[in-house]
Every structure is written in C-alpha cells, then in structure tokens.
Amino acid sequence: MRNNKKMIVCFLTPALFMFLVVFLYPVCRTIAMSFFHAEGVSDPVSSWTFAGLENYITLLNTPIFLDSMLNMLKIWLWGGIIVMLISMLFAAILTSGVGGKTFYKTVVYIPNIINAVAMATMWINAIFNKRFGFLHTFFSLFGSDLAKTDYMSGSTKFWSLLVAFCFGSVGYYMLIFMGGIERISPDIYEAATIDGASKVKQFFSLTLPLMRSVIKTCLTFWTIGVVGFFVWSQMWSAPLQSELSTITPFVYMYNITFGTQGDTQRNAAMGAAVGVLMALTVLVVFFFVNRLVKDDDVEL
Questions:
Q1: Is the confidence at residue 299, as pLDDT, over 50?
Q2: Range 275-299 average pLDDT
Q3: Is the pLDDT assigned to residue 136 strictly greater than 70?
Q4: Residue 53 CB contacts under 8 Å (≥ 6 apart), including other chains
Q5: Where are the alpha helices (DSSP H) in 131-267?
Q6: Alpha-carbon dihedral of residues 231, 235, 241, 242, nearest 10 degrees?
Q7: What is the dihedral of CA 134, 138, 139, 142, to 10 degrees?
C-alpha cells in the first residue's frame, strides 16, 4: 500500500505543479491586478499602483463597456432561445426513428468543424453582401424591397451576426441533446404509447423532464461560449476597429489590454477587471441555472 501511495504521488506531483503554474497562478495574478494600475500584462508587481475598486467603477461608467455587455446579453438571451429550441427540435426528430439519421446529423454538425473565420467570411460575402449575396439575389427575384437592405450596417448588422453565429452553433448542442434523449429507456416511451400519449405529449411530459441535467449542461456551455465571444465580433467589425453594434466584453478586454483601438492607451489592469467580471457573470448564471433547473435523480 505504501508503495502504491508513493507511485500515486509521483504521478500527481507533475500534474499538480503544472496546474499551479499554468492555471492557478495566472488566475490569482489577474484577480490581484484588477485592483491596481498596471499598463502591461507582463509588468512586474513592484510597478503596480494600488487602485482599489477604481477599475471596476470606471468600467461601470464607460459607455462602450456597457454597450458590449448589452450586446452579450442579447446574444445570450435571443441566441440561446434560438439555438436551444432548434437544437432540441432536430434532436427530437433524429431520435424518433427517421431514416437517414447519420446523414442528417452529419449535415447539421458540419458548420461546427469549419473554422469560425472561414464560416464568418462565407456569411459576410456569400449571404449578406448587398451586391451579390444570396439574400440580395433571392429577394431581387421577387422584386422585394428587402433586396436593398444592407445587412452589414446599422442595427441590422448585429442581427445578421446573431443569425450566422446561431447557424454554426446548432449542431453542437443537437448532439448533446441527442445523447441525452438516447439515454432514456425506450420502455418509457413504449408505455406512454400504449397509454395513448402522442409524440408531442411524450416530448413535453417525458423527454423534457428527463433531460433537465442535459439542459443545464447546455445552458452552462452556452454561457461560457457567449462570454468568450470574440472571433465573430471581430469579423463583423470594420478593419482595425470594433463597432458598437457588435462589440462584446471579450473584444473590449482585448482592445483595452493591448491598446489596439486607435489611440487607446494600454491598460492591463482594466482588462483584468473585465476578465474578473466575465468570470463572475458565468458563476452567477451557473448559480441561477442550478436554482431554476432542478436535476432530481430519475431512474431511466
């Protein structure tokens, strides 16, 4: 037994060391930096100047940051509703015994294996382009005024971004929902069918209640993904600058940390404060999801 313990320690020590150095130390350093004034990420601690809550107060009074938080909230709420509903619908259809399940599952999931930059470029140039994009050509065939709509400007720009992002997210959550549905015993559905329950009734009375833990997991993953929203926002912005209609907190954090936004001064401490706020956002959402979506143990 003693030899086994020594072997366990030998295997765990390198992993623990890497965890402390690569993960825990940067996290603690970032949290600490958010309460100081620091220009560069790699500035020594001795050069930091204590600021208390000043960085957080400044952020909460910065219109650009507040706009980015509002954009993130809209992506989380409206995008979450769209993605979860469509993903659940596809999962329910593909697990109902429909023919060609593997083919349809592959088709829906393909956008998830395409690089986000390539996917965004496809939407911007092939779908939303106001001269030769698909939507322009389609509506032109019917003589609709929608053919004149510029989907890459104004308030419409945000919604075109949201549609493209949701399109690329459905397949991932569909697979998770399919895995949850396939874990449910067929005997339960067979008994419900014998009792005269329709497919719709079975879905709302059996499938959804038995998938509470899966739904909770998807909501958590969705929140983490939206908080880290970066590439799509950058692709929808003009070169070398971020636009208010599509900026998100992660993009704002990048700009303020590295001073990439025109004459913006580098402020690593402010960027650290944004990162801390985003982490707290995930924790708050996770807390409320756990409170609202109960995953009582159910025998499948």
A1: no
A2: 80
A3: yes
A4: 35
A5: 134-141, 156-182, 186-194, 199-202, 208-210, 212-227, 231-235, 249-258
A6: -60
A7: 170
The pTM of the full predicted model, rounded to 2 decimals, is 0.86
Q: What kind and span of H or E run contains 37?
A: strand 36-37
The Cα 12–Cα 261 span in angstroms is 44
SS3 50: strand
- Number of helices and strands in the chain (H, E): 16, 2
Domain covering 54-292: architecture: Orthogonal Bundle (1.10)
Structure tokens at 249: 């907190």
User: Three-class SS of residue 21?
Assistant: helix
For the residues of 253-289, what is the DSSP string, one character each?
HHHHHHT-STTPPP-HHHHHHHHHHHHHHHHHHHHHH
What percent of the chain clears pLDDT 70, i.e. is strictly above it?
93
pLDDT digits (tens, 9 = 90+) for 142-169: 888 788 888 888 778 999 999 999 998 9
Cα→Cα distances 152→97, 122, 159, 170, 247, Å: 41, 13, 9, 23, 14
3-state secondary structure (DSSP) of residue 36: strand
pLDDT for the residue 295 = 59
CA quadruple 94, 99, 103, 109: dihedral, nearest 10: -10
How far is residue 294's CA from residue 300's CA, in Å, rounded to a whole number? 16
Highest mean pLDDT among 8-12, 261-265, 293-297: 8-12
Backbone angles phi, psi at 31, to 5 degrees: -60, -45
For residues 93 and 80, give the distance between their C-alpha atoms in angstroms, rounded to a whole number. 20
How many angstroms separate the CA atoms of 286 and 217, rounded? Answer: 9
